[in-house]
Amino acid sequence: MPKHLDKLLNRTTGLTAATALFSLMWLTLIDVVGRKFFNNSVPGGLELTEILMVIVIFSALPLVSWRNEHVVFDSLDAFIPHWLKSTQMRLVHLISGAVFGFLARLMAMRAERFAEYGDTTVHLQLSIAPVAWIMTALLVVTALVHFLFMFKPNMSANHENSASGAQS
């Protein structure tokens, strides 16, 4: 199951983040060249940049959670008994999953409001609601990853060990 889920996350959220980042790179290049040599920037370039940045950041969240690559405060880990670490890990994943789930709920309410009011970007008149729904879905996936780790702490510990081994 972990390998299948790893493959699925890489092929969906990882590919989405990579594609958005690649698009952002080309948009920036074209915009800078246009301003420098043609005295004209990409119309709506700022709006497209904002949308692509949202996609990059929120698409990366499930992968970062899956690989346990969040910023970690581990200065007190040496003082925590081994028997408590499993409980600590479950609690951290419970809180993280709950926070991401709460953020997903807030974003869903915002997406509903965007759709109801027909909010769009200023220059290109792109609907904002689909972007908010994408953010909601990615927050839900991130919350589910944390809840999965909460119920399967051995898988989380294995991921932590493999991540630290890859960094060494």
From TrEMBL:
Topology term for the membrane: Multi-pass membrane protein
Kinase among keywords: no
Highest taxon, organism lineage: Bacteria
Keyword Cell inner membrane: yes
Tripartite ATP-independent periplasmic transporters DctQ component domain location: 25-148
Keyword annotations of the record: Cell inner membrane, Cell membrane, Membrane, Transmembrane, Transmembrane helix, Transport
Subunit note: The complex comprises the extracytoplasmic solute receptor protein and the two transmembrane proteins.
Protein family (similarity comment): Belongs to the TRAP transporter small permease family.
Protein name: TRAP transporter small permease protein
Phylogenetic classification of the source organism: Bacteria, Pseudomonadati, Pseudomonadota, Betaproteobacteria, Burkholderiales
